[in-house]
Amino acid sequence: MQIPQPYLLFLGDVTDPLSAKTAKGILQWRPKMCTGQLRLTQETVSLGITDLSLAEARERGAQTLVIGTANAGGFIPQSWLAALQEAIELGFNIASGMHQRLSGFPALSNAANIHGCQLYDVRHYDQPLIVGTGKPRQGKRLLTVGTDCSVGKMYTSLALEKEMNRQGLKAQFRSTGQTGILISGTGIAVDAVVADFISGAAEAISPDFTDHDWDIIEGQGSLLNPSFAGVSLGLLHGSQPDALVLCHEVGRAHIRHLPHMSVPSIESTLEANCTAAKLTNPNAKFVGICLNTSAIDESDALALCRQWELQYKLPVSDPVRFGVSTIVDKLHSI
C-alpha cells in the first residue's frame, strides 16, 4: 500500500501518553510529513505540535488522517466516528493500525466511495502475493533481527537509515509492521500475511533496485521465540540480507509473555539467524548488535557495549544513547 502524505495525526480522546506511541513515532522519524494534530478534547494527550481542525489541515495540504493511537483490543471507539466521517467528507484518506477495520464500518466505507477516498487498514493485507522464490535480486539489504519481540528492531532500522543517509549511503526503510508502515507510508504488515506467502511478501517489499544503495528491512518477532519464529524465518529468507543487525534488551528476564522461556543467548541467536539467512544469501553476515540499555545507567551501558564488542567481534551500541555510526561504518565495505 502507498499512503498519501502529508498527514494529520489523529489523537482522538486518549489521555494516556503511551497510547499515542504510533503518532509519536511518526513525528519523531518523519516530522516533515506531519501537518499537525487533531484532538477531540482539551484533555487529550498532545504531541506538542499545532492543533488543527480538519478544514485547516486540508487547507495546509494534509491528505491522510492517521489514527495515531492504540488501545487494548485495537478497536475504533464510537466517539471517533463522527470525526472520521467528517474527514472523509472533506476529502481525507484515513489510515489506521487498529485490529478493527475501518472498512468494517458501512458508513465510512460508503462515504469513502462517494468522495473518492481510501481507507487504509495497515494491519491487514488483502492483496494477492506469490510465494518466495529465493532468486537473487539487485541491491543490498540489511535486516534487523532480535533475541525476542519488542527489543527495538523498528527503532534500530530507522536509526540505521538516518545514519546511513548522513554518511552518504543512500538508504530506504522498508516497513513490515503497522507503525512502520504509517511512518514510511508504504509496506506490508507481514504478521497479517498467510504463512506460505511471508517470504514472498518480503521479496515484494524489497524488489530489485538500482536507484539507491541499501534497503533497511524492519524485522519482526524472533527466530528463537516459540510464538513468532515463523514470521522471522519468512523475513530472513525473503529479505536475502547482505547484512544483519541483532537487537536485544538488556535485563529482560524471559521471552515476552512466556515466563517459562528464557531469553536465548546472544551466541545462539547470532548462529541461528546467520544459518537461516544463508539459505537465500550465502554471503549474509552480522555487522553489529544494538542494545536497549534503558534498564542500566549510561556509564554501565557504555562499558557493556565495549565489553561485548571484544566478546563478539562486532560493533555494539545503544542507538538511543550512542547512535549507530560504528555499525554503519562497516557497511561501506560491503
Automatic annotation (TrEMBL):
InterPro entries in UniProt: DgcN-like, DgcN-like_C, DgcN-like_N, P-loop_NTPase
Domain D-glutamate N-acetyltransferase-like N-terminal: 47-124
All residue ranges annotated as the D-glutamate N-acetyltransferase-like C-terminal domain in the record: 131-328
Protein name: EBNA-1 nuclear protein
